[in-house]
């Protein structure tokens, strides 16, 4: 497992530890040093320090720790363990206190951790539930994300989140199964991955990380607890979040830089702490060349004839942390500039993809693609397979410079196809894709049929069409997974 997530000296995008307890007494002796270590050595961009109320000390030093450094933010809540301490408490109500701080201090960016913990049962269940619901109401009132803790109470935690309609928040230190993850994703919640993912025996967690879209994932330490491998058993600290990110990268087949860029953007969106948070997409400049793993993707158009029910661009134009909504379509020269010098040695492949159908601009694909081929690059096109209908001719012979073409087959027959892809070509669309795939085999070395695993579509039957009828390899893309 690598640990090469870059630090700020490289100018690369940095990680955010979305859940640390910097006020914990275990940090009393060297708090300033470990914070310095996190930012200057380990490559962290921000830390969210989570303060848990206690009857004796309220929220203690959490807000002053957040205010001591511009890159530290705070969340406040009453941990389910301490819920019973609020009963009969005669001091300042912790919810009033949270409201007052939130309204006066922008460093407070989340409510929680709150939720249910039936492991130690430090507080009775009914009191935990009551406080959980009060946190939900407060987070909604303040328009702040909810940080949810759940231990041995996953079913009930999800029932409450669903009943209360919680859409803005994160399941911190996620320890549930895929079923719980799906319920959380359906609500629109994020899933935060802790150092537990680095433990060899955490097989269920590995499965969850493999299947949950990285666009909905955060990373955290929950320090000083739960140190990841290779620091397991030691005191945890924010710097160690890099080990968790490295393991997520390995499980997702992404680079560590991909994981840093995407999870950081996710955290900034959720907590509203960066320049890119929700509602500001219109102010951003789209990337025309963007890197995922060691491939360089070219975003040459946002146009496409289809309207796919699963297309993520209808929710957000950000793919794997790259913003792709073009204000103008790039020229060939602009693309070559964005690609830069000697691409063959810098990238495994160049992919015409983006949020649109690249072959709508077939002239640009040919001009840029042929130049890149001469430079020794491997070229891939991801396409909807409808270019022949769009251009009114068989375009495949023109694509001789392409090494790989991945064609969205998406369904085993025309009716199923049209149920998820609103195509202007109607019943002509699916036969045209079958023809396109057959034709592609004559001109392009590697032809792949792909499908997005949309619920209700028979993937096995689609595989049979691809492999048995068309004789091309088949690749399923996870629903909600882009890039
Ligand atoms: S063809 Fe691609 S870009 Fe167009 S709607 Fe479908 S998934 Fe989205």
Structure notes:
The chain has 483 residues and is an alpha/beta fold. The protein has 2 domains: 8-271, TIM Barrel, CATH 3.20.20; 281-477, Alpha-Beta Barrel (TIM Barrel), CATH 3.20.20. It has helices at residues 31-41, 62-67, 94-104, 125-142, 154-163, 178-187, 203-211, 241-252, 256-271, 332-339, 343-346, 362-374, 387-391, 414-420, 429-443, 459-470; strands at 15-20, 44-52, 72-77, 108-117, 146-151, 169-171, 190-193, 217-219, 289-292, 295-298, 307-308, 318-319, 322-323, 349-352, 379-383, 404-408, 421-422, 446-452, 474-477. An 8-stranded parallel beta sheet has the order 1-2-3-4-5-6-7-8. The chain has a 7-stranded mixed beta sheet with strand order 9-10-14-15-16-18-19. Strands 11-17 form a two-stranded antiparallel sheet. β15 (379-383), α13 (387-391) and β16 form a beta-alpha-beta unit. α3 (94-104) runs parallel beside α4 (125-142) and α8 (241-252) packs across α9 (256-271). The chain starts with 14 loop residues before the first strand and ends in a 6-residue tail after the last strand. The protein binds iron/sulfur cluster.
| Biggest β-sheet: strands ordered side by side in the sheet | 1-2-3-4-5-6-7-8
The radius of gyration over CA amounts to 25 Å
Shape: elongated
Number of domains: 2
- What is the annotated CATH architecture of the largest domain? Alpha-Beta Barrel
Residue fraction in strands: 15-25%
């Amino acid at each position: 497992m690598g640990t090469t997530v870059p630090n700020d000296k490289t100018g690369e995008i940095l990680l955010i530890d979305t859940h640390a307890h910097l006020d914990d007494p275990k940090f009393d002796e060297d708090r300033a040093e470990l914070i310095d270590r996190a930012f200057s050595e380990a490559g962290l961009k921000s830390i969210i320090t989570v303060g848990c109320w206690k009857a004796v000390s309220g929220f203690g030093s959490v807000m002053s720790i957040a205010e001591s450094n511009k890159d530290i933010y705070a969340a406040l809540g009453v941990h389910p363990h301490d819920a019973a301490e609020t009963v009969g408490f005669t001091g300042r109500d912790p919810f009033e206190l949270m409201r007052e701080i939130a309204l006066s201090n922008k460093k407070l960016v989340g409510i929680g951790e709150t939720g249910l913990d039936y492991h130690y049962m430090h507080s009775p269940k009914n009191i935990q539930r009551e406080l959980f619901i009060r946190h939900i109401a407060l987070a909604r009132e303040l328009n702040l994300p909810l940080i949810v803790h759940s231990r041995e109470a996953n079913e009930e935690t999800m029932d409450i989140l669903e009943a209360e309609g919680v859409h803005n928040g994160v399941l911190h230190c996620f320890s549930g199964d895929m079923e719980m993850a799906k319920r959380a994703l359906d609500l629109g919640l994020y899933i935060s991955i802790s150092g537990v993912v680095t433990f060899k025996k955490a097989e269920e967690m590995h499965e969850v990380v493999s299947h949950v879209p990285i666009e909905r994932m955060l990373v955290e330490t929950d320090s000083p607890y739960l140190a990841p491998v290779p620091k397991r058993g030691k005191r945890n600290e924010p710097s160690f979040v890099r080990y968790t990110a490295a393991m997520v990268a390995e499980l997702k087949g992404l680079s560590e830089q991909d994981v840093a860029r995407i999870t950081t953007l996710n955290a900034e969106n959720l907590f509203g702490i960066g320049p890119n948070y929700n509602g500001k997409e219109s102010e951003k400049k789209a990337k025309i060349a963007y890197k995922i793993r060691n491939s360089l993707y070219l975003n040459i158009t946002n146009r496409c004839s289809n309207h796919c029910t699963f297309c993520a661009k209808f929710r957000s134009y950000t793919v794997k942390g790259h913003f792709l909504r073009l204000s103008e379509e790039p020229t060939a020269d602009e693309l070559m500039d964005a690609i830069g010098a000697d691409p063959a040695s810098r990238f495994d492949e160049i992919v015409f993809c983006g949020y649109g159908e690249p072959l709508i601009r077939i002239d640009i694909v040919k001009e840029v693609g042929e130049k890149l081929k001469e430079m020794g690059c491997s070229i891939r096109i991801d396409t909807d397979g409808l270019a022949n209908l769009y251009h009114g001719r068989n375009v495949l012979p023109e694509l001789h410079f392409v090494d790989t073409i991945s064609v969205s087959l998406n369904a085993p027959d025309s009716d199923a196809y049209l149920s998820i892809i609103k195509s202007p070509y109607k019943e002509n669309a699916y036969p045209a894709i079958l023809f396109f795939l057959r034709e592609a085999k004559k001109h392009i070395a590697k032809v792949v049929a792909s499908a997005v695993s949309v619920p209700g579509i028979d993937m096995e039957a689609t595989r049979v069409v691809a492999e048995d009828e068309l004789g091309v390899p088949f690749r399923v893309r996870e629903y909600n997974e882009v890039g």
